[in-house]
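Researcher: Sequence recovery benchmark, item below. Answer with residues only.
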């Protein structure tokens, strides 16, 4: 009898943990930005309703470094125009599907997401 109760308790606890983990993963668009370019990144912005957002980063992202960013929501359009600007003033922008992007790699004048 004790073994059955223990198995039920363990199964219920595991299900709750798995459900909580799934909710945390799907609750917001959280992603990692990796700077694979040769220059520090000083701005990371997204475009909504024709306007660029405030700069998402407070400090620069050095070559080889990464930072985790978070929309803190999962609502809205998945595909968002995203701009990156470097310390030398150079910049580019591209569409990113944030419903699918978990890592965004910045490569000079382009970015890839996976």
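Model:
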């Amino acid at each position: 009898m004790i073994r059955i109760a223990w198995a039920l308790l363990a199964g219920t606890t595991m299900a709750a943990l798995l459900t909580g983990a799934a909710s945390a993963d799907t609750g917001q668009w959280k992603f990692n930005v990796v700077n694979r370019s040769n220059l520090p990144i000083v701005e990371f912005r997204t475009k909504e309703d024709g306007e660029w957002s405030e700069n998402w980063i407070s400090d620069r992202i050095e070559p080889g470094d990464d930072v985790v960013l978070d929309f803190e929501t999962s609502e809205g359009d998945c595909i968002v125009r995203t701009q990156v600007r470097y310390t030398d003033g150079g910049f580019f922008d591209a569409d990113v599907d944030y419903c699918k992007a978990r890592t965004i790699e910045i490569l000079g004048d382009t970015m890839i997401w996976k």
